[in-house]
């Protein structure tokens, strides 16, 4: 096997401060809800800036409370460069008690659940072309006003 190396890319906070749009039970047998991302910020050694309003955090909630994530954001660096960021992921708990808290949208200690994302980027910014060929992974936690992720570049 070829070993995988990771390099910290940034920490990102997405602000989700409006009520979700509940689509309801869909043919997959899950409940779909859409949350609007109203802003946020990201900061790392090579990239920093803000999350622009208008992104979407789309979730499928399984009957057991596990979540399938599909998120689309536009980031703006401090230099004014735009980055389209997409990620898919999973969030669930290792115990029935943690799953109950996730289902009830209660806060849980950071790292008490399994909250992982797979990230890709698109940009037209000449200085950031390297992002177009990278994939990243992240770990997350849910704060009262939205998710917080540590994002790692896969080398």
Secondary structural class: mainly beta
Radius of gyration of CA atoms, rounded to a whole number: 16 Å
Q: Which spans of ≥5 residues are poorly predicted at pLDDT below 50?
A: none
Architecture (CATH level 2) name: Beta Barrel
Helix content: under 10%
Order of helices and strands: EEEEEEEEHEEE
Enumerate how many helices there are, as a single number. 1
* Distance between the ends: 15 Å
Strand content: over 45%
CATH topology (level 3) name: Porin
Mean pLDDT: 93
What key phrases describe this protein's structure?
single chain, 155 residues, mainly beta, Porin, 8-stranded antiparallel beta barrel, 11 strands, 56% strand, globular
Q: What does this entry look like structurally?
A:
With 155 residues, the chain is mainly β. The chain has a single domain, classed as Porin (Beta Barrel), CATH 2.40.160.20. It is built from 1 helix and 11 strands. It has one helix at residues 96-103, and strands at residues 6-15, 21-25, 31-37, 39-43, 48-51, 55-61, 67-77, 82-92, 114-122, 135-143, 146-154. It has an 8-stranded antiparallel beta barrel. A hairpin with a 5-residue loop joins strand 2 (21-25) and strand 3. The protein is globular. The mean pLDDT is 93.
């Amino acid at each position: 096997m070829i070993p995988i190396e990771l390099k910290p890319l940034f920490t990102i906070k997405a602000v989700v401060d409006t009520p979700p749009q509940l689509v309801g039970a869909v043919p997959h047998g899950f409940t779909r809800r859409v949350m609007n991302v109203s802003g946020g910020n990201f900061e790392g050694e090579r990239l920093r800036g803000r999350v622009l309003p208008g992104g979407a955090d789309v979730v499928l909630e399984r009957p057991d409370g596990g979540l399938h994530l599909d998120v689309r954001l536009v980031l703006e660096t401090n230099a004014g460069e735009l980055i389209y960021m997409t990620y898919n992921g999973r969030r669930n708990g290792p115990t029935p008690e943690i799953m109950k808290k996730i289902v009830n949208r209660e806060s849980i200690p950071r790292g008490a659940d399994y909250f992982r994302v797979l990230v890709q980027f698109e940009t037209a910014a000449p200085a950031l072309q390297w992002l177009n060929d990278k994939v990243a992974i992240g770990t997350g936690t849910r704060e009262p006003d939205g998710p917080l992720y540590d994002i790692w570049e896969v080398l």
